[in-house]
Amino acid sequence: MVAGRTGVPPRDLENVARRTVGQPAAATRTSTLGATLRADVTELTVSCLSMAVGVGDAPTTSDEDIAELGGRAAQWAREGVPLRAVLGVYHEGIQMGWDLVSERATGNLKAVAKAFVALSERISTAASASYVDELQAVASEHHTAAHTVVTALLSGHNARSVARQSGIELADSFTVLAVSIAAHPDESNPALPRAVTARRKLRRVQAELALVCDRSPLSMLSAEGGTILVPGERDDEWVATLVERMSVAAETAVTATVATSSVNDVPAASDQVHELLDLAQQLRRPAGVYRMTDLVLEYQLTRPGPGRAYLSRVLVPLDNSPELLETLEIHINHDLNRQRSARQLHLHTNTVDYRLKRIAHLTGFDPTRPSGMRHLQAALVARKLEAISPSA
Length: 392
Prior knowledge:
This protein is α+β, with helices and mostly antiparallel strands and about 400 residues long.
């Protein structure tokens, strides 16, 4: 008798496997699987058991047999079965084989144990590789399908039809975000490949985006930003949390503009939020989340014309007094709070008051009165926009 031979007839292996798979511990592991996959568990367990028992008779198992056995993990990857559960089934069969061999073996058990360890490693490696390869293929297929659906949504061309063909469920409404991702500090490090650093940043953002969203969001992102379509209408707090988590993942500042729309209005909503994002960046607004309500005055003033040209000239009398322009802008940014404005300017509040009076005298608009401040705030925005794109 060969060392390690079990004496277990092949026809009995399936009965052993079925009894083991039916035990409470194993039944718990497979309870979430469908009937077809539960049957696959038994079949796979039999295969692992048979291969493991055969170690006593044929210490070397061919690469082809190992690859075929490991390849069965691919189907489970596509079905969404966790890798931990898949490897558990493989190891169950191998463990059963070891129990049979060790109980009945004669001769050099140490040699058989070494062969078992080697076999277990080969099977685990083959199964893991097959699972990961299939998972990557599935992810690639979904990415391609999602990209196709996003393109259809943004162009307004047969989005529902494209979504059905791609196997993606389309919501009735979307929260549309235009996103700008600032450069990571490492992207300016000459010792590091910029493209690699940027790509890693993007992957972290995409991973965080998938975690925050219940289902994979539809997005078209680069390392600099892009468009995100989140199914349903999300409130301000949810969007703020999403952008904050994206910023943490990116390890840099993220600015987003947001709107909600129906499926048919996604193209218009996308155009609007990207226009708002450009505006926020042109005005050097701090990173964060902006809606139309936050930039409505600035948005309206982006339209060149005689009104904007007039407003931009309101502040010309302050050109020779840059400290007055600075005071006005800081005062507006602090919601007209004199104390906070004074702290940032490192001045006494009386000095701030004096400068505000000077602004009123030179421009004709009093920044301490609502009517005057409205004109001055609009004038500041118009002045910046005229510098970027002058009216005809």
